[in-house]
Design a protein that fits this description.
Shape: globular
InterPro entries: SusD-like_N (IPR033985), SusD_RagB_dom (IPR012944), TPR-like_helical_dom_sf (IPR011990)
Structural class: mainly alpha
GO cellular component, one term: cell outer membrane
CATH topology of one domain: Serine Threonine Protein Phosphatase 5, Tetratricopeptide repeat
Keywords: Cell outer membrane, Membrane, Signal
Low-confidence stretches: 1-30
CATH architecture of one domain: Alpha Horseshoe
Subcellular location: Cell outer membrane
Mean pLDDT: 93
Radius of gyration: 23 Å
Pfam families: SusD-like_3, SusD_RagB
Strand content: 5-15%
Order of helices and strands: HHHEHEHHEHEHHHEHHEHHEEEHHHHHEH
Distance between the termini: 17 Å
Oligomer: single chain
Helix content: 40-55%
């Protein structure tokens, strides 16, 4: 385990660079940058590989660290199974931390997957200009690599604050350990990558489906600026996305999200992680991880519609809380699209009815094997970002126009009351279960207060938060409410800088 950061950062070094010394002979049978990166197709393959960790991140990690680590979702206690402590520690804000590091497996794996993206993109960016091929294609590939590296660092800086800043391939153990860069240094690099990527990337109408576009890069950079409270800069980028005519709201919220086999990368999609149902190894199963448990076969079949349903045991994760359920206004059509209910015959609770995340629950063919894409950025979020950026600059009238476009699609009237709070509220329900809530709480300065109050509600009424009668949260639940995750202990063991 302790060697993994070296392995992660040395992924690119399997395609290692060689110097310009003509006496250096690269064995033809050894995979290296000299023998692999020789043509356009090689870089296409390498950029494809840089997208791959996104599937692991969004299928297995991001919902834990970004949604269940908030007041939007919780876990459903199944005393017949026992505890899944690693997940519970995240949901309960009780992650064991010592000297700034933690042994939590999910934190560790998130960190590693982001650095895997960084290692692969660094290899591409360090070699692509040395190979001659069509400029438009080269720029497109470079732009994708820059976006993906920026995206990975944006995740890392929001999760951890300070992390090592690797911008070149790591070719030996000594290079793998770097000092922790400050948040400011990391943000400077993210902005640099995205600013350079935007003119290189193609618009959605010309880009291959599923790949990063110039609109996606503008949206990510706007998100970065919003985190930094650079409202005018964010406004400029978001207006460019809006006026590009590349995106629009789908009239019916129920039609926004992909099925297992269709409706992918639709007109509202700005960027989504691609999954493919079937045996190619590109499938996901996050909707199964979101189910309350234990579930009998007929109960699974009633949601999934598969021909071979199997019962689900263990403990449920990412279950909508009473807090998010009550956050929807009367008449909000998004509520029934986003949240469903299932009665579990084997539950130890007297009330055997549980909510579940419905917006991703699409019929598919095989048990535990889906092709539903994960929405990272949607056009509705562009509109809400723009409303926020405008409102923070005192342009409340125009801000309300963009906010109300999103509300109108949900069957609601114009926003009333404090506009800032209305925007925050709208983000919560429009983007529920899309891993936005924790980041929103942190960047708006509300995380400690909101989670402290939420923890008090959970401990005061455990049954309302899916504990069987007589059960209660662990004694240390909500004892470690912090704005950043501690760095992974396994990686700290390899570095003198952690």
């Amino acid at each position: 385990m302790k060697k993994t950061i070296i392995i992660t950062l040395l992924v690119g070094s399997m395609l290692s660079s060689c110097n310009d010394d003509f006496l250096t002979v690269v064995p033809e049978t050894q995979l290296s940058s000299a023998t692999f990166f020789t043509k356009e197709a090689d870089f296409q393959q390498a950029v494809n590989a840089a997208y791959v960790p996104l599937r692991t991140i969004f299928n297995d990690r991001a919902w834990l660290l970004g949604e269940m680590h908030s007041d939007n979702t919780y876990y459903a206690r199944n005393p017949l199974f026992g505890a899944t402590e690693q997940q519970e520690d995240i949901a309960d804000f009780a992650i064991p931390t010592a000297n700034g590091v933690t042994s939590n497996t999910h934190v560790l794996n998130q960190y590693r997957q982001d650095y895997l993206i960084i290692a692969r993109t660094n290899q591409v960016l360090s070699t692509i200009d040395n190979v001659d091929f069509a400029a438009e294609s080269k720029n497109n590939l470079k732009g994708q690599a820059m976006f993906l590296r920026a995206f990975a660092y944006f995740e890392l800086v929001r999760y951890f604050g300070k992390v090592p800043l690797h911008l070149t391939p790591v070719t030996n153990r000594e290079e793998a350990a770097l000092p922790l860069a400050s948040e400011e240094e990391i943000y400077v690099q993210i902005v640099k990558d995205l600013t350079e990527a935007i003119p290189m990337l193609l618009p959605k109408s010309k880009q291959e489906a599923g790949r990063v576009t110039s609109g996606a890069a503008r949206t990510l950079l706007a998100n970065v600026y919003i985190n930094q409270k650079k409202w005018a800069e964010a406004e400029t980028l978001l207006r460019e996305v809006v006026t590009s005519n590349e995106y629009s709201l789908i009239p019916n919220y129920a039609d926004v999200f992909s099925t297992s086999t269709s409706n992918k990368n639709n007109m509202e999609s700005v960027f989504e992680v691609q999954f493919l149902e079937g045996s190619a190894g590109l499938n996901g199963n996050f909707i199964y991880q979101f189910m309350p448990r234990p579930m009998a076969m007929p109960e699974v079949a009633s949601i999934m519609g598969t021909s071979n349903p199997q019962p689900l045991d263990a403990e449920g994760n990412n279950i909508p809380t009473p807090d998010i359920i009550n956050a929807y206004e009367p008449g909000d059509t998004r509520k029934d699209v986003s949240i469903g209910y299932i009665t579990l015959s084997g539950s130890a609770r007297s009330n055997k009815v549980y909510p579940y995340i419905k917006k991703y629950a699409k019929p598919h063919a095989l048990h535990n094997n889906t092709g539903t894409n994960w929405p990272v950025y949607r056009y509705s979020e562009v509109l809400l970002f723009l409303a926020e950026a405008l409102n923070e600059q005192g342009k409340s009238g125009e801000a309300a126009t963009f906010l109300n476009q999103v509300r109108s699609r949900a069957g609601l009237g114009e926003a009333q009351g404090d506009l800032r709070e209305a925007i925050y509220q709208e983000r919560r329900v429009e983007l529920a279960f899309e891993n936005k809530r924790w980041f929103d709480l942190v960047r708006t300065g509300r995380a400690i207060d909101v989670i402290t109050a939420y923890g008090q509600r959970v401990k005061a009424d455990p049954v309302a938060y899916y504990y069987p009668e007589g059960s209660q949260p662990r004694s240390h639940a909500f004892s470690n409410i912090t704005l950043f995750y501690a760095l992974p202990a396994d990686e700290a063991a390899l570095s003198p800088y952690f």
